[in-house]
Write a structure and sequence with these properties.
The structure is a single chain. By secondary structure, the chain is of the alpha/beta class. It has a single domain, classed as Rossmann fold (3-Layer(aba) Sandwich), CATH 3.40.50. 18% of the residues lie in helices and 26% in strands. The chain is built from five helices and eleven strands; from the N terminus they run βββββαβαβαββαβαβ. Strands 1-11-10-9-8-7-5-6-3-2-4 form an eleven-stranded mixed beta sheet, with helices on both faces. Strand 7, helix 3 and strand 8 form a beta-alpha-beta unit. Helix 2 crosses helix 3. The protein is globular. The termini are close together.
């Protein structure tokens, strides 16, 4: 196991754009579609004894053609001429995907389709209040969203490569994403990579099978997280098979490094895009190890993150994260 320092200055260039129209900011446009995905085979139980089919309102972002280079442009035409990898993102307890918008937009700008459902009973506005006991149903929701995104009736189906699928999630969403990728009961073998942000193992999933051929793993964890303590991330990371990468965010808490805290959010963006490129889009660059992210002054070009603007010498910039790599 090798520990690689990832300095704060790495965040300064931001994620590299890959496709889409740009404005003066130089950033690609991001389109958004809102899909109402209904699973009639499963129901939810609401206050007052009512039941209804399990429904997932899903926000889908993608690289878009938009002359303004806008962000979250409703129903904008897709920029890509071929198929793109898809990431299904699972939000945490008592929030919605909206709070993670900057991270999801960064993935879309980097050339991914990003599907972020609102889970019907754990979200911030769930009838009767968020119910954490519904978490065990969310790995099945992930598989349902994947199937719906690939269905011929989906408006973006032709944009998505069925052989390049990732799952990502934060907090409770990290638990559901981890179960979708590695649990014995819920593992979806269509998933080719997993990004787990302050997540953990969960019960009720038949245990875990971190076997040869399991999806590559990127785990991120704040060292000052008191909600999902680092020991929980370290526990599943130890069990996981290679290739696996652990991003430690020094001094970071539970939610801020994935929503608004800088430079941590930019670091999460850059490292996750490098990871997803390497395992879902290998023609974008070869990861092999993340050694190019080791401290240099000044930093050399960081394939597969190129093209990047030259980064200034690090000087005495404090290290706010480190990366443990087992490729």
């Amino acid at each position: 196991m090798s520990a690689l320092a990832l300095p704060a200055a790495l965040a300064s260039a931001g994620p590299a754009p890959r496709t889409g129209a740009t404005a003066s900011s130089g950033l690609p446009a991001v389109g958004i579609r809102v899909l109402r995905l209904v699973d009639p085979s499963r129901s939810i139980h609401l206050p007052g004894g009512r039941s209804e089919p399990r429904t997932l309102l899903t926000y889908v972002r993608y690289p878009a053609l938009d002359a303004s280079g806008g962000t979250d442009v409703p129903n904008a035409p897709a920029a890509a001429t071929g198929t793109l990898p898809v990431i299904v993102f699972v939000h945490g307890f008592a929030v919605t995907p909206t709070i993670y918008a900057k991270l999801l937009q960064a993935w879309a700008r980097a050339g991914f389709v990003v599907a972020a459902p609102i889970f019907p009973l754990e979200n911030a506005h769930a009838p009767g209040g968020p119910d954490e006991s519904d978490l065990v149903n969310e790995p099945s929701d992930v598989s349902f969203v994947i199937s719906q995104m690939l269905a011929p009736s989906d408006p973006l189906a032709g944009l998505i490569d069925p052989a390049r699928i990732a799952v990502a999630g934060q907090s409770d969403g990290g638990e559901a994403a981890l179960a979708s990728a590695y649990s014995r009961r819920f593992r979806d073998r269509r998933i080719g990579a997993a990004v787990i942000l302050s997540g953990a193992l969960m019960s009720g999933v038949g245990g875990y099978a971190f076997t040869a051929g399991s999806p590559p793993l990127l785990a991120a964890q704040g060292t000052a997280d008191t909600i999902n303590e680092p020991k929980y991330t370290y526990a599943y990371f130890k069990l996981a098979r290679r290739p696996k990468y652990l991003l430690r965010l020094t001094g970071a808490e539970h939610l801020p490094p994935y929503t608004r805290q800088q430079p941590q959010l930019s670091i999460v963006e850059r490292v996750s895009i490098a990871f997803l490129d390497a395992y879902l889009r290998p023609t974008a660059g070869t990861l092999a190890t993340l050694a190019p992210l080791a401290p240099l002054a000044p930093l050399a070009p960081l394939a597969p993150l190129a093209p990047l603007a030259p980064l200034a010498p690090l000087g005495n910039v404090p290290k706010v994260s480190s990366l443990v790599a087992e490729p």
